[in-house]
Fold this protein.
Amino acid sequence: MTYVKGAPEVLLAHVDADASAAAHQVLGRYAADGLRVLAVARTGGVAADDGPLAAGLELLGLVALIDPPRPGVVEAIEECHRAGISVKMITGDHAATAAAIGRDLGITGRARGAAPRCTVFPPPTGTSSPW
């Protein structure tokens, strides 16, 4: 048995259509409330760590997390606005989650969907950190 967790947008593409549709409804509600959401699923057998995600995953559930802003963030954003600075938020969150968090922080604008995957680049030669 192999258990996987990750972006709902990715994992739900590999589960039964009925389960996916129901989960998307719940995901929409959670995201609109500003919650960060992970999907958890399993499949029979052993999967390779770096192989493609198998079709036919069994959805076990969604995990919703509250990740409140750090103290002082709202005030800092307000100060930026008073100074004429346009504040942008860059995140890998679900677009509805990002929009809800932005509203709570006083950041206005249009939320755009983000790719639910990322590429990890190796550190430059001779360094131990990519930063």
